[in-house]
């Protein structure tokens, strides 16, 4: 049977392509580790921490949070060291997870916010989170870092060799959202054939806030809007081993999330009875082969072909008050992304004297089609229903990309390691005008656009003595414009506010890092200093005006490369085996980590996406039968001096709300009843602290007339984090 490569760690660092599918099993079973500022989270760690969503996944990682949206749309992506959204590359088994459609001109009205979709965590074997520029590995979008998910294989459940079958039943309950989860995994090996099937269902409600306050409609509402959320996921992976060195396989995945939101915080003078009925789907099918061969140019080859469809539909039922009375209206907006991807990856080891080269190289080609439509049905009093449909925010677009990369991990000696990487990407965009979507600015803004970029990486690891090392890294990354940034517009032909820009360039970042790490028999300590320089950030700015067909003046905004920014900071990680360091009972351990980040824009304003200082202290005890872990997390308050902006008149604009400081205690425990059955439980926010996460409230304003963003009275309290809550989980293997 084909075994997992002993090069797994190097492979994980070398490519977001199909190499990411062959992580070594032993690597995935560690509780979590940091490797040169790469956080690795295993499936076991996901179970131990009772992770129910992506917010839980990054709970213990310094400098990483999930960027929050409003209740209807959920989180919109990862925030790594103060950089968020599409500036973080996200992939599953090397397949990019699409781009967002944020509709900046109309976010406040709550009709649509197309995120980058998600995945079912029960199918995840390992998550690798890299901080800092990462385009050599992950391509476009990795300005602030990358998040790479690797899915499970059948042999994660089976014996090392021989025919075998196994199954696993998992169930959990999360009190904060009343979410119940049930999952079943079945795996088998019959000769050279291996198969894994995982089915998972989650059903729950909105995540509660700290205190259930006034249950009213409008912006003064003190509770999250009521929701019903159903998540279903089917995952199938099969492979056949033709020999010990040659495996052919295929994978199928189908994920559906249905969310119904009673958007009571929107009800008021403009909207009445708003209900959101949203469906998010991701389907994937792929075929792959991996083989060890004795060839001159490579020792190992992997190729894969994948097809992925990401579809999002937001349907809003409501009555509007714009026409002198209540007018029933249903708005349906869709955002579809269909991706086809071909990848080839190679590995070659070369030894020349005392110098060893571990070379990874490859190429990939992808073709993505993007569609966005809006359908509106409304009925005014005394009139027949009016039905309209059009491409709403972006036209039908096709994006093709090809890339070439090479990464050489060089061992100069036992004490000195060098890493050199280079990647070339070429992106071509082609938008199709239609009767629903025209270039109202004139010119060629709906024509073809082409972008290319060279990414680079350079790293040096130098041992200092027997137990310490210094790691220096420089990375160069880019993000190509999104379809929305290139072609967006809003409103009707004669009443619109946003125009496209055919002259955009890629956003870039350069990351410098220096890490000192030391280890003893019972302890590990690492401190990292970093500096990130970002250039040509794309932002929407007022540019000009035009005279429309009605003879009126339309002022409009377009996205432009106008902003530079930089972030800098320190991160500290320490872990201790207290038995070896202090003579405490065997099984007792502790950890500490902290992150300080500062960010500034080129006009001197702070980069408001940067999170406040945070630190964590954890103490745990575990033996073969039971264990308990406690974690105390401290987060500083967001300072007003780190949260203001400057308007077009040069005036300083303060944020209405700032997050408070908080110390939050979480306690988890497990008990292994038998070799097959493990029970876990956790109590979170044990002291019932009332607090806010900065990323949850940094867009919220006081007395803003726009529904969904503005709050009045004590409406801000609906954004508080849950009070004391608990999670229980059971896993049964047979």
What's the helix and strand layout?
Blueprint (H helix, E strand, L loop, with lengths): L7 H7 L10 H4 L4 E3 L2 E5 H6 L5 H4 L6 E4 L9 E4 L7 E5 L2 E2 L27 E8 L3 H4 L6 E7 L12 E11 L4 E12 L2 E13 L21 E17 L2 E17 L8 E22 L7 E21 L6 E26 L2 E24 L7 E5 L5 E16 L4 E17 L15 E17 L3 E12 L3 H5 L19 E13 L3 E25 L5 E25 H5 L5 E14 L12 E9 L3 E10 L9 E2 L5 E2 L8 E11 L4 E8 L9 H4 L3 E2 L7 E2 L13 E9 L1
Parallel strand pairs: 5-8, 33-34
Antiparallel strand pairs: 1-2, 2-7, 3-4, 5-6, 7-8, 9-10, 9-35, 10-11, 11-12, 12-13, 13-14, 14-15, 15-16, 16-17, 17-18, 17-19, 19-20, 20-21, 21-22, 22-23, 23-24, 24-25, 25-26, 26-27, 27-28, 28-31, 29-30, 31-32, 32-35
Q: Quick summary of this structure?
A:
By secondary structure, this protein is mainly β. Helices cover 5% and strands 54% of the residues.
| Average pLDDT reading | 86
**How many angstroms separate the termini?**
22 Å
Number of helices: 8
Question: What fraction of the residues are assigned to beta strands by DSSP?
Answer: over 45%
- Low-pLDDT regions: 1-35, 491-495
Helical content class: under 10%
Q: Biggest sheet: strands, sense, closure?
A: 22 strands, antiparallel, barrel
Number of separate strands: 35
Shape: globular
Radius of gyration, whole Å? 26 Å
Secondary-structure-derived class: mainly beta
């Amino acid at each position: 049977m084909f075994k997992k490569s002993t090069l797994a760690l190097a492979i994980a660092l070398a490519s977001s392509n199909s190499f990411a599918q062959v992580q070594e099993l032993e690597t995935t079973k560690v509780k979590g580790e940091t490797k040169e500022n790469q956080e690795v989270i295993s499936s076991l760690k996901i179970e131990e921490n009772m992770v129910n969503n992506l917010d839980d996944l990054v709970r213990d990682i310094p400098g990483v949070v999930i960027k929050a949206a409003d209740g209807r749309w959920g989180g919109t992506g990862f925030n790594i060291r103060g950089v968020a959204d599409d500036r973080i590359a996200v992939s599953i088994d090397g397949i990019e997870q699409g781009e967002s459609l944020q509709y900046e001109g109309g976010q406040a009205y709550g009709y649509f916010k197309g995120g980058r979709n998600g995945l079912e965590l029960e199918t995840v074997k390992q998550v690798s989170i890299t901080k800092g520029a990462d385009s050599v590995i992950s391509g476009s979008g990795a300005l602030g870092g990358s998040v790479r998910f690797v899915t499970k294989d059948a042999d994660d459940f089976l014996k090392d060799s021989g025919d075998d079958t196994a199954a696993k039943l998992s169930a959990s309950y999360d009190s904060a959202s009343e979410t119940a989860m049930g999952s079943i995994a079945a795996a088998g090996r019959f000769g050279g054939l291996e198969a894994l099937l995982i089915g998972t269902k989650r059903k729950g409600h909105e995540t509660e806030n700290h205190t259930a306050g006034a249950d009213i409609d409008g912006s003064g509402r003190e509770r999250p809007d009521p929701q019903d959320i159903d998540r279903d996921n089917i995952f199938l992976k099969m492979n056949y081993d033709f020999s010990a060195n040659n495996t052919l396989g295929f994978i199928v995945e189908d994920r559906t999330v249905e969310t119904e939101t009673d958007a009571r915080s929107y009800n008021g003078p403009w909207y009445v009875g708003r209900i959101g009925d949203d469906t998010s789907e991701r389907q994937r099918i792929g075929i792959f082969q991996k083989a060890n061969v004795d060839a001159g140019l490579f020792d190992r080859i992997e190729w894969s072909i994948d097809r992925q469809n990401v579809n999002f539909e937001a349907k809003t039922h409501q009555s509007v008050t714009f026409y002198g009375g209540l007018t029933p209206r249903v708005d349906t907006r869709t955002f579809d992304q269909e991706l086809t991807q071909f990848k080839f990856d190679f590995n070659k080891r070369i030894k020349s004297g005392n110098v060893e080269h571990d070379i990874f190289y490859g190429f990939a080609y992808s073709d993505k089609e993007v569609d966005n439509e809006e359908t509106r049905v409304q009925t005014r009093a005394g009139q027949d229903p009016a039905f309209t449909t059009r491409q709403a925010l972006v036209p039908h677009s096709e994006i093709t990309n090809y890339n070439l990369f090479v990464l050489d991990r060089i061992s100069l000696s036992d004490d000195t390691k060098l890493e050199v990487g280079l990647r070339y990407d070429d992106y071509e965009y082609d938008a199709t005008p239609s009767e629903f979507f025209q270039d109202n600015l004139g010119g060629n803004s709906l024509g073809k656009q082409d972008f290319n970029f060279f990414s680079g990486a350079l790293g040096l690891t130098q041992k200092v003595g027997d137990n310490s090392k210094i790691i220096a890294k420089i990375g160069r990354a880019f993000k190509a414009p999104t379809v929305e940034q290139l072609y967006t517009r809003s409103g009707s032909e004669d009443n619109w506010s946003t125009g496209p820009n055919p002259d955009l360039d890629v956003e870039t970042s350069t990351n410098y890092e220096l890490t000192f790490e030391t280890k003893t028999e019972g302890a590990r300590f690492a401190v990292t200093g970093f500096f990130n320089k970002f250039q040509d950030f794309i932002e929407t700015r007022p540019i000009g005006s035009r005279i429309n067909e009605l003879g009126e003046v339309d002022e409009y905004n377009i996205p432009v490369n106008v902003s530079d920014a930089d972030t800098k900071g320190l991160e500290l990680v320490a872990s201790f085996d207290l038995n070896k360091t202090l003579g405490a009972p065997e099984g007792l351990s502790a950890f500490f980590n902290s992150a300080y980040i500062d960010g500034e824009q080129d006009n001197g304003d702070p980069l408001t996406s940067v999170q406040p200082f945070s630190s964590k202290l954890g103490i745990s005890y575990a033996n073969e039968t039971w264990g308990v872990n406690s974690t105390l997390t401290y987060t500083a308050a967001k300072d007003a001096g780190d949260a203001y902006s400057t308007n077009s008149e040069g005036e300083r604009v303060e944020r209405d709300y700032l997050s408070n400081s908080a110390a939050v205690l979480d306690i988890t425990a497990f008990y292994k009843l038998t070799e097959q059955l493990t029970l876990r439980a956790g109590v979170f926010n044990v002291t019932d602290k009332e607090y806010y996460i900065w990323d949850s409230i940094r867009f919220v304003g006081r007395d803003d007339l726009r529904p969904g963003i503005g709050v009045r009275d004590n409406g801000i309290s609906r954004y508080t984090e849950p009070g004391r809550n608990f999670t229980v989980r059971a896993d049964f293997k047979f």
